[in-house]
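Subject: sequence -> structure tokens, single chain

Hey, anyone have a minute? Need the predicted structure for the following. Not urgent.
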Amino acid sequence: MLKAKEIMTKEVITVSPELKITDVARLLLEKRINGLPVADSQGRLKGIICQSDLIAQQEKAPLPAFVVFLDSFIPLSSHKNFEKKIQKMAAVTVEQAMTCDTIVVGPETSLEEVATLMVSKNIHTLPVVDQDKLVGIIGKEDVLRTLMPRKENEG
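Reply:
Had a minute. Here:
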């Protein structure tokens, strides 16, 4: 059974929270990748920034849903979620647009668990963390490569 450490990309490109959104967009396009881990100056994982986080900036501003009852406004959605969405749409830096509550896996996580997480949570990029240190990253392409037959060494 394959493990995360066997399919992950070990040379991980990270970005800092202070980096401008335009620079991240350029990097994602140049490297043809979906997402990048966000790390602080000590190398600790702070979040992840994905294409979908940047595409959110182009969304139409959501109007807060509410009902009027006895001359009172009753919100139908969380005010906090509304503020978060507006902040993401107006983001200038990675820190303002990134996803903070990042789902991670460990090096010993099985391929089946990785695939299940990606499908059930609609995740395209999974950081691999070992003892609070980023050691790799798994993208959809890494999982797809496991479907290809392995070439035997020709000697």
